[in-house]
Design goal:
The chain has 235 residues and is an all-alpha fold. Helices cover 75% and strands 0% of the residues. The two termini are 24 Å apart.
């Protein structure tokens, strides 16, 4: 723990957001492969799916992607409103926001463990919509923390930055390590989520819930110790 305390706060926040990026990969794999091809974190994917569906794409879903978009925006709006009243950086509101994410995903993990939501159109839609709310909250929280190049839910801009700022493009390759890690981790998360489906929806959601809880707790502990340390120094 002393080693963790010696790590700069910005670096700790980077690690935590990268962990959530992996978690998003898990959740999106569970949603797309296990819940009728809907993304609950990557809203760009839903917009593209809807465009193809509206053009007559064969057997492409419409309802769940639409619901995911709406509930993602709702989650982001609620989190944005709550976090805007708090201080910059990590705060008690940040911890609360991420614990809400963890709580929602944990509840869904339990639900999918005891009920076959894939057999019910209504329960399946409720599951994806609730996941989208959680991902919207997570994305808004990550945005508030302002960890450069890490959104936790998409990597398109990260890939663009990695390429356009590379030595090959005449750039200085700034942030290339975190960009590469974000891309790799969301992919590895998708691998883990797809593999977890061999056991059940609940396993992938449990993995994501555990990560979200760990991130919230670690961030809270670090923030609490920093605040107490600042108080001691001032005294």
């Amino acid at each position: 723990m002393k080693r963790l305390n010696a790590v700069p706060t910005e670096r700790v926040h980077l690690w935590l957001m990268l962990a959530l990026t992996f978690s998003t990969g898990v959740v999106d794999a569970v949603g797309y492969l296990g819940l009728d091809r809907v993304f609950t974190g990557n809203m760009t994917g839903n917009v593209v799916l809807l465009g193809m569906a509206f053009a007559g794409g064969a057997d492409l879903p419409i309802l769940r992607p639409v619901l995911a978009l709406l509930f993602f925006m709702l989650g982001a709006a609620l989190a944005g409103r709550m976090l805007r009243k708090g201080p910059e950086g990590w705060s008690g509101r940040t911890t609360l926001s991420l614990m809400v994410v963890a709580g929602v995903i944990t509840a869904l993990a339990v639900l999918t463990a005891v009920v076959d939501v894939q057999a019910s159109s209504l329960l399946g839609s409720i599951t994806t919509s609730a996941l989208a709310i959680a991902m919207g909250i997570q994305a808004a929280t990550a945005k508030r923390l302002k960890v450069a190049e890490i959104t936790t839910v998409v990597v398109t801009s990260t890939i663009t930055g990695l390429a356009s700022d590379s030595r090959l493009a005449g750039g200085d390759s700034k942030h290339w390590v975190r960009r590469a890690l974000a891309i790799a981790l969301i992919m590895l998360g998708a691998v883990a989520g797809a593999a977890a489906l061999n056991v059940g929806l609940w396993l992938g959601l449990t993995i994501s819930a555990v990560i979200s809880i760990a991130v919230a707790v670690t961030g809270y502990v670090r923030h609490h110790r920093e605040r107490n340390g600042a108080g001691v120094s001032a005294g």
